[in-house]
Amino acid sequence: MPLLSISEVARQVGLRPSAIRYYEQIGILLPAQRISGQRRYGPAVLYRLAVVQRARQSGFTLNEIRQLFFGFRKAAPASERWQKLSRQKLVELEELANQIKSMQQLLRNMMEKCHCDTLDQCGKGILRSGCGPAPGKSLPAKRSPRR
Amino acid sequence: MPLLSISEVARQVGLRPSAIRYYEQIGILLPAQRISGQRRYGPAVLYRLAVVQRARQSGFTLNEIRQLFFGFRKAAPASERWQKLSRQKLVELEELANQIKSMQQLLRNMMEKCHCDTLDQCGKGILRSGCGPAPGKSLPAKRSPRR
DNA sequence: GTACAACTTCAAGTCAACTTTAAGTCAACC
DNA sequence: GGTTGACTTAAAGTTGACTTGAAGTTGTAC
Q1: Neighbouring residues of B79: CB distance < 8 A, sequence distance ≥ 6
Q2: What is the pLDDT of residues A53-87, one digit of tens each?
Q3: Predicted confidence (pLDDT) per residue in A102-140, tens digit
Q4: How far apart are CA B21 and CA B19, in angstroms?
Q5: Which residues of B touch A68 (CB under 8 A)?
Q6: 0.70 surpassed by pTM
Q7: Do B100 and A59 count as a contact with CB atoms less than 8 A apart?
Q8: Which of B118, B126, B131, B147 to mutate to test the interface with A (most CBs of A within 10 A)?
């Protein structure tokens, strides 16, 4: 039953030691046992950090991860904790995805429709919504050609 | 031909005066004419800022917006500028959208498959990839029930 | 006894896009 | 002359998730 040093833990989970100290500092990890001043960890910390990493991958902030660990009554099962936080996070991600879609729409529209010469022209066009007209002929407002 | 004060411009474009000063400071807006120390703007600044706002909505950073304005040879038409920057940005947005999809996948998988009691259990499961087994019976991996 | 690596703490720095604050200037009105 | 309101500048603060730096401690190796 070997106790791990901070850099050993860091190595195993793919973090830097400073990140692990930070997690302890902000209360995501409980203060580790010290041996002559230095942190020593049991293997369980690897599970802890696996959860943290998975949650980060899933888009949770460190505050939310703290909720996951400490924001429930003590007996609350892990599955219930994930359920609750995930539901909310899925909503946020959906919103984010929609934002991205509308950015893509704007960009595609810009690439397709903007024939402005100067950016000021372009700005004028934007104020009338959409972007500027073609230099010579006015296109008959075709809709996006499939896809 | 009325010259606009900074707060009038801000009001019209929906920014705060401090943002406009900031844009000047970082070189997105050219230094405005001063009248007894105060900034005065012609109507063209509204086009400028319309472009800035549109670019922000499309996901461009302020650095990229500076590129849009000043990162091309002087004669480069606006449409060409947008094309170049948009192509790159669309790639980034695509990557971002994929990240979000994988987060959503992780979360849905978690909600569906995790029946862990403790988060440590959960962490153990994650280390073996996926999450923990059911408490009693093993569910036959049903796929999401519509929607 | 001293060099060294690995750790410690605490404070400050990083990034982006601003905002906030403090202290000062200016023109207009009473 | 005094007050008000809108402006000015420069510097510092904000948020999140860390990293970096400085200065100090510990255990081990030579």
Answers
A1: A114, A115, A116, A117
A2: 999 999 999 999 999 999 999 999 999 999 999 99
A3: 999 999 999 998 999 999 999 999 998 767 554 433 323
A4: 5
A5: 119
A6: yes
A7: yes
A8: B126
